[in-house]
Amino acid sequence: MKKIKNILVLSFLLNTSFSYTQLFKNLSSSYESYSAYYLDDSKTGDFNQEDRFRSNNYLNLKSYLGRNWNFEIQIESYAPSPLLNYSPNFKEIGLSTFKIDYNIDDLNISAGNFYEQFGSGMILRSWEDKDLGINNSIRGLNAKYRINDEINITALIGNQKKGFKYSKGYIVGFDSEFDLSKITKNNSTFLMGLSYVGRNDQRTKSSFYPEMTNLISGRIDFSSNSFYSNIELVNKSKNPIVIFGSLSDNFIKEGSAFLFNSGFFKNGFGLDFTFRRLENMSLFSEREAFGNVYNESIVNYLPALTKQHDYSLTNLYVYAAQPNVSFQSKDLTKAGEIGMQADLYYFIEEETFLGGKYGTNLSINASVWNNLDGNYDYVNQNYDVDLFGFGEKYFSELSLEIRKKWSTKFDNIILFVNQFYNKKFVEETTGEVESSIVVLENTYKINDKKSIRLELQHLSTKDDTKNWSAFAIEYNLNSAFSVYFSDLYNYQNPTEEKKVHYYNLGGSYSKGINRYTINYGRQRGGLVCTGGICRYVPESTGLSFSITTSLF
What we know:
The protein is mainly beta. The protein has three helices and 30 strands.
């Protein structure tokens, strides 16, 4: 039935006289392919013969239909199977997204699949991230109207995408933003916003709680030439807590969120500070989707607010935001998270003692995240938390990064990181990990086209699986072609057979907007994160390759 519906939609578009004359005239497209052939490996595991080759493919087509109409579709293929640990709702070939936009003056109306974000995203964000396997677009109607360049209004309704399927529950939303910059007497920007999101889950009906869950948020944003600040408050109506995979009829709580961000930058100095408090803030278009490992049906955007590192060992014990209520045991109860992050940047000027000939960039990052402090009643499944109380520590990190150019040919990066990671509360397993990480990255420019990069890393800890080492070497033959080899090794793992070399050998070729990559090696099991959102990937060994291109 689904395939028939897709064919009918495409046939209608391609056979109307208006579409036929305009569709291909202004058509643009992009194509992405990510494939892997998995191999048996005594260290990382074996695979069934029929599941060895897996491939994710995305073809996106966009066109301007006349002056006021825009058209977009995305066709996806997961044949014969999707890459490891992608949702089982991604399978075979189908029409993934379809959208028609109508624009006239200050009005925009979208029908079909669309992406939207209200404020920081704490009550609504729909987006696509192929690396994480996320595409939670909303299928329905989205209308935007702008009044006198000072008021923006958005209204939407629809069902949320999950693979080639859609949620049974629907989402309604309203967002308004007011530009009050004219009341200021300088070039600063002053915005105020008010948002509403309602989630109606028709699959779970109970006399103990309503079908509709309501979220309301208010925000203020201010920015000037060297200073910015914003604050957002969210209230979430009562919603049943999920305990051991089941919705509770008596554990029903409200949720709330508070976000404050501010920063200052001038004359080579920058400071950014963020504070956030989340209480029972997870939201899914279907309540029973709570806790799924694929991030499916997630309505809002609650990333981990920690430094986003580029190195394998700094991401070994990576923090994921903790917005949920969890009552696993008497000594493992939590209702959300509270914490802060600060970034300090400073550029030491050229021709100074510490700056040298080319200057030096320094950056310091510090973050700490805790459970909400309060009274937790495990037996009666209830809690009463303090507004700004810091409970059990989840995670903390302090890092210093030094970027130094020594000559026209040589520069390096030195990174020191100290981490604390509470496995018991973050992963809901056991243990705590205190670690220190050192990274040294060196780049030598051989000539205008060729360069070589060497990366050395070490993680020291007396906890968990003990010490790790890692290195990577990359050779850029020119601006288009590069090759690399890397290895990640848990050389002090207490279990001898788990002392595994996670090696990788590969290369990439780029020409214009076209990019091709190939890699052979082992994937370490664990969390893979993009922008503070994570998904779990299992250990594997194999050959992978990707293509990113524009067809016309």
